[in-house]
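Q: What residues go here?
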């Protein structure tokens, strides 16, 4: 950030009085522009025993497989965001149920929340951010071509708890590289 989004004056990076870390502070109006971690919401969506995966049409990790997931929008609940992402990426209608996993990724300032979310119908097709989408049996999951470690973690926890009516979420912190 170079200029204040409130008044347009240049912004400088300094520790505001009473604070303990550098912030973007406006040299004109004095506003402190806080930057906080972002929330990613997504789902493991199943139809019977098969799991929905999407092959990414966008960077990063274009061409690799992922779960329907993305950044939470302003004014949206985590469940609403998960439903929206499933529709945008796979034209999938889902029943968002339990929290499956919460992953902290402090090195990229993200928190990822995944739900267990059965598909309401098996009809899926690629949305604009996907090259293709598919329903995979457990043994057919493309483990070597998954886009992110958290996708693997969420899929494994889903599989391990798939018969439990109430699951304990998988809560983990990604190691700093
Ligand atoms: Zn300002």
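A:
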């Amino acid at each position: 950030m170079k200029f204040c989004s409130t008044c347009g004056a240049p912004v400088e990076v300094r520790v505001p009085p009473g604070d303990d870390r550098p912030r973007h502070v406006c040299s004109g109006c004095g506003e402190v522009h806080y930057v906080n971690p972002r929330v990613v919401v997504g789902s493991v969506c199943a139809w019977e025993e098969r799991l929905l995966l999407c092959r990414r049409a966008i960077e990063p990790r274009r061409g690799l497989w992922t779960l329907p997931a993305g950044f939470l929008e302003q004014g949206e609940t985590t469940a609403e965001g998960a439903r929206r992402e499933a529709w945008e990426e796979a034209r999938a209608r889902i029943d968002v149920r339990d929290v499956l996993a919460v992953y902290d990724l402090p090195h990229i300032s993200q928190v990822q929340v995944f739900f267990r979310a059965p598909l309401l119908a098996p009809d899926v097709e690629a949305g604009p951010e996907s090259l293709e989408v598919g329903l995979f049996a457990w043994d057919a999951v493309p483990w070597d071509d998954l886009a992110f470690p958290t996708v693997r973690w969420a899929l494994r926890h889903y599989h391990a708890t798939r018969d439990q009516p109430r699951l304990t979420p998988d809560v983990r912190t990604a190691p700093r590289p």
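A: Context that may help when evaluating the design: The chain has a mean pLDDT of 97. The first strand starts at residue 11 and ends at 14.
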